[in-house]
Design goal:
alpha/beta; about 15% strand
């Protein structure tokens, strides 16, 4: 098990289980020394039910801060959020930048109330996805990009468009000094899926990480935990690591997310 995880959810997103304290206790039991909570951000204009409501955000902040104090002698806790980049929501994204210890970018949808990142099957949607990532990085909205290959969940094959998207994301990472995440969540947790060109995990995908390794992009491991017990089981972590085995990825275990956040937040403070 890794010692630091910045990608942790809570029951407030509607698709995670367990109390906030159960996550902290399980992380301690699993040997973690630093835990960042980063539940899905809420938006002012969204009608989605698989994200936190704005009304829940004060409770989220108060709960994690109380646990930070309660467990300060056992583990270091930070309060963050996993944002998605929608230009029409730039005001609330800016507020998160000011209030949170850190923000990570997980672009699950191309538009505010759709699931196109999971349903993308054409090159033009890959282009839109990449543009969302670049906008967020160019505007200092995040410390790293979560599951950069989530867009391939439904994409039928690893083709030239996929590899072009990987090259563009690698360039974004290096230009803006924003790491990319090797995600150990749903993409591997549910096992391999059948695609036109064979079986693979939905994400992470080797084709993307071949490019990331070639360009020496910094890689952060994110457990993307939605259930406390996953802190006690390395199965998904080992599956994700098997995807990139032998590539020589630039995995950084000591990425100082908080230092990076303080630097990025200067624009907003």
């Amino acid at each position: 098990m890794i010692k630091t995880n910045w990608h942790t959810h809570t029951f407030r997103c509607g698709h995670a289980v367990g109390t906030d304290e159960e996550y902290v206790q399980a992380a301690i039991q699993g040997g973690l020394t630093t835990l960042g909570f980063s539940d899905h951000a809420a938006y002012t204009k969204s009608r989605r039910t698989d994200r936190m409501d704005l009304e829940q955000f004060p409770d989220y902040m108060a709960s994690i801060r109380a646990l930070k104090e309660k467990y300060k002698d056992q583990i270091t806790l930070y309060l963050g959020t996993e944002i998605e980049c929608y230009p029409e929501e730039i005001e609330i994204l800016t507020e998160y930048r000011k209030k949170m210890d850190y923000c990570i970018l997980g672009q699950h949808s191309l538009n505010l109330d759709d699931d196109l990142s999971y349903l993308a099957t054409t090159p033009d949607l890959l282009d839109i996805y990449v543009s969302r990532l670049e906008y967020a990085c160019a505007h200092d909205l995040c410390e790293y990009i979560c599951h950069p290959d989530v867009i391939l969940w439904s994409y039928p094959r690893i083709d030239g468009s996929v590899r072009d998207a990987a090259k563009k994301i690698a360039a974004i990472s290096n230009q803006y000094h924003v790491p990319l995440e090797l995600n150990t969540g749903s993409g591997v947790h549910h096992g391999m899926r059948e695609y036109e060109d064979g079986k693979r995990y939905a994400y992470p995908t080797r084709a993307f990480f071949e490019e990331f390794a070639r360009e020496k992009c910094p890689i952060v491991i994110g457990l993307d935990v939605h259930d406390p017990k996953l802190f006690l089981d390395d199965t998904d972590l080992n599956r994700a690591l098997s995807v990139v085995e032998g590539l020589g990825c630039n995995i950084i275990d000591d990425y100082d997310v908080i230092a990076a956040a303080n630097e990025h937040k200067k624009k907003y403070l």
